[in-house]
Design brief:
The complex is a heterodimer of chains A (508) and B (90). The radius of gyration of chain A is 23 Å and the shape is globular. Chain A has 23 helices and two strands. Chain B is mainly α and 90 residues long. Chain B has a domain of 60 residues. Helices cover 53% and strands 0% of the residues of chain B. In chain B, α2 packs antiparallel against α3. The relative contact order of chain B is 0.14. At the A-B interface, α3, α5, α10, α12 and α14 of A face α2 and α3 of B.
């Protein structure tokens, strides 16, 4: 690939700008950053506008901007499940999460596991929630690096060997240092820059590129017909329909259980800030639909058959589709802006994810099991150090281990995180569930979901269940969540009975 | 007592039933898995779903407005918070 000086200069300049922002964020809405809820939740003072930028920057990650068009580029219509997904998440956000925010605000909770610990009085269930959160988030941080690496490579840098990895390592050192000093304030401030850049890039792309390619009609006719719609049901198989719907619904139910999403939600200043954002964040859903369309534009532009991009495609696969499309369609300076928006788009979620993991570790492992009497300042100190360790771990993970493992673990993460739905959400609405039953449900869901993914060689999370001769391919997260629910509901009366028996025998 | 409580709940929270509508709109795939009619060259499958993004936002916002202005469901249940702090909008 040819080294592009103009694009690189713009890219580096924007990166320096957000680095500066990351450090000055420590003085924004000044407060004592040696307290965990200030460092790790921004003092719960973010209003509607900041929350809009923060959650938008947090939920729509750089990896999605690269991998989603890549999926559409390769597989077609099935990749568009993200649109129904991005529609259903907001009614879910509106209904459930202001309630969790109110509980967390009232009792000073920083994590979902804090809430579960208090609500069910079970250290073990809280531990399961915390560990699941951390384990599901780590590979999610790692895949952000994949998005970043592709654009650094597309700028013309080699991304092989130690020197090839240097830009990525520098970016993460910078990220780690401003997260350490400023906490959640850093990604909140940087998210404003990131979101503006992404909106500008995508709107420019959906105007300029179709004009070059002869309009949307021409783009869609360049896409092979069978890719344009989902495979309809045939004899004994419902085709893509069930996979499409359950991917949307399952990912939608899982989204706000991710620690980084909850951290964004809990940092809001009121329940109504969350409710307003449930409507306003749809702007990003529209954006994500347009980003998916970039995959078709890459097909129509024929980027994979251009000799100058052959090396990129051979190294990064379909993930190179969007960078190649931008290189082919934009002037150099705007390529710099577009690539910076993707790279900065990796920093914001990576920062929030590492903060969320640090909050979980500190509150629900360190304080709960090692140092119950640790001071507030200790808490914040440990969280800052853990946020560093988490990021080092992500870099080592992506550099030392084949990338496919990170991708497969991220896919498994979606199956694992949805198992938190019963403990976190049922407790908000019902007093009838007990901790041992929920723990058993969690274990059954996690085990069955992992098994289903294993039968697919960890390359797909769609599990083709055959009942009465009809094959029903469904997102494994949803099947396993169903098992989780059934176990929790079935075992609740049993554990209640046992609890009453033992209470009665001790009374006697 | 419980009946009165249920009625009060209905009066406050009925707008939330509207939140089912976006689910109905996008989760029944056979309704929109086709190419015709196209809109400005964009197949139905794509513009239909993109239109639901906007409709979904309108519905959620409508529920928010009805709850805050009419039924009063959303202005109180933030237990323990003072609600409208100065930083609420920014």
């Amino acid at each position: 690939m040819k080294f592009d000086l103009t694009a690189t200069a713009i890219f580096v300049a924007l990166f320096v700008l957000v680095t500066w922002l990351g450090f000055v964020a420590a003085h924004w809405r000044k407060a004592d950053l040696n307290r965990l809820h200030e460092w790790g939740l921004g003092g719960r003072r973010f209003g509607t506008a900041v929350t809009w930028f923060l959650l938008g920057g947090d939920l729509y990650t750089a990896y999605a901007f690269i991998a989603l068009p890549a999926l559409v580029f390769g597989a077609g219509a099935i990749g568009f499940f993200v649109i129904p997904y991005a529609i259903v998440i907001y009614p879910i956000l509106y209904l459930i999460f202001p309630r969790l925010w109110a509980e967390a605000h009232r009792l000073g909770h920083v994590t979902a596991a804090d809430y579960v610990r208090e609500r069910f009085g079970s250290r073990l269930l809280a531990l399961a929630v915390a560990v699941t959160g951390i384990v599901a988030t780590m590979p999610y941080i790692a895949v952000q690096l994949i998005g970043m690496e592709v654009v650094i490579g597309a700028l013309g840098f080699s991304t092989r060997g130690f020197f090839g990895h240097l830009p990525l390592i520098i970016a993460f050192v910078v990220l780690a240092s401003f997260t350490y000093t400023s906490g959640l304030r850093a990604p909140a401030l940087i998210a404003i820059v990131k979101d503006v850049l992404i909106f500008v890039t995508v709107f420019a792309a959906v105007v300029i590129i179709p004009a070059q390619l002869g309009g949307y009609g021409a783009i869609f006719s360049a896409v092979p017909q069978e890719k344009l719609t989902l495979t309809p049901p045939a004899e004994g198989n419902v085709g893509d329909y069930s996979a499409y719907v359950t991917l949307a619904l399952g990912s939608g139910l899982a989204l706000f259980l991710y620690p980084h999403a909850l951290t964004g939600v809990l940092s809001a200043s009121s329940g109504n800030v969350i409710r307003r954002n449930a409507a306003l964040l749809s702007a990003y859903s529209f954006l994500v639909g347009l980003i998916a369309l970039l995959g078709y534009m890459a097909i129509a532009a024929g980027v994979d058959s251009k000799p100058e991009f052959a090396a990129g495609f051979s190294q990064y696969g379909p993930n190179f589709a969007v960078p190649a499309l931008f290189l082919a369609s934009f002037p150099s300076w705007f390529v710099g802006v577009a690539f910076a928006s993707i790279a900065i788009g990796a920093l914001v979620p990576a920062a929030i994810m590492s903060i969320a993991c640090a909050n979980l570790f500190t509150r629900n492992l360190y304080k709960e099991f090692w140092r119950p009497d640790c001071s507030e300042a200790d808490e914040a100190r440990i969280a800052k150090i853990v946020s560093l360790i988490v990021k080092v771990g992500a870099v080592v993970f992506i550099l030392a281990i084949p990338q496919t493992y990170a991708i497969q673990l991220q896919l498994l993460g979606g199956i694992w995180i949805i198992q938190l739905l019963p403990p976190v959400v049922l407790g908000l609405y019902s007093r009838s569930f007990n901790a041992p039953a929920l723990l058993a449900g969690w274990a059954a869901g996690t085990a069955s979901g992992t098994y289903m993914a294993a039968t697919q060689g960890f390359t797909s999370s769609i599990y083709p269940l055959t009942v009465f001769g009809v094959t029903l391919p469904v997102y494994a997260a949803l099947y396993s969540l169903l098992i989780n629910f059934v176990v929790a509901i079935a075992l609740t009366p049993l554990f209640d009975l046992l609890a009453r028996r033992s209470a009665a025998s001790t009374a006697r | 007592m419980s009946r009165r409580k249920t009625n009060a709940g209905w009066r406050r929270y009925w707008p939330r039933l509207l939140l089912v509508v976006p689910f109905l709109g996008v989760l029944w795939v056979p309704a929109y898995n086709r190419i015709e009619p196209t809109f400005a060259g964009i197949p139905f499958f794509y513009w239909y779903q993109l239109a639901w993004v906007l409709l979904g936002a309108v519905i959620v916002f409508a529920v928010y407005l009805i709850e805050t202005r009419l039924t009063g469901a959303s202005d109180k249940p933030d237990l323990g918070s003072s609600g409208g702090s100065p930083g609420d909008v920014l």
